[in-house]
Design the sequence.
């Protein structure tokens, strides 16, 4: 499915790459390197699809997705606990659109009322995930990626 050196997106972590494919008595494993935080993850090759690993979006698809999310009007729950559960579920999908929706929703919530510390961390996580994919796809620095994300998500 994936090859050594190939760029990937890993749910709850963001952009990375397949550092190595190793075989053991228990099967083959992908060794994934996530540059943000210098994280290494080892997952079974056979279970990779279930884990939500995916290829990064194409540039055009990424831009269209983020603009569409930026123009959306998210439905906000008044219950922060329910918002948290919904948003962490979105991030676990590993999908760009779902992660961007978390950013959009929490920004809208922040306009109404200050976010709790838990939601602030969740917003930071969602931003890091989306920004890492933008950086990976466009091969730009974080400052430029921040500018693009802000432009695309403005409504």
Sequence:
């Amino acid at each position: 499915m994936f090859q050594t050196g190939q760029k990937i997106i890993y749910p709850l972590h963001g952009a990375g790459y397949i550092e190595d494919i190793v075989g053991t008595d228990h099967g083959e494993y992908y060794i994934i390197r996530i540059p943000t935080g210098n994280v290494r993850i080892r997952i079974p090759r056979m279970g990779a699809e279930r884990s939500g690993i995916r290829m990064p979006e194409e540039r055009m698809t990424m831009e269209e997705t983020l603009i569409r999310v930026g123009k959306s009007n998210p439905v906000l729950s008044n219950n922060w606990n329910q918002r948290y559960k919904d948003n962490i579920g979105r991030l676990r999908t590993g999908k760009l659109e779902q992660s961007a929706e978390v950013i959009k929703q929490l920004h809208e919530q922040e306009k109404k009322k200050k976010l709790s510390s838990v939601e602030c961390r969740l917003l930071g996580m969602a931003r890091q995930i989306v920004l890492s994919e933008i950086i990976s796809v466009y091969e730009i620095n974080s400052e430029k990626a921040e500018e693009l994300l802000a432009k695309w998500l403005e409504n």
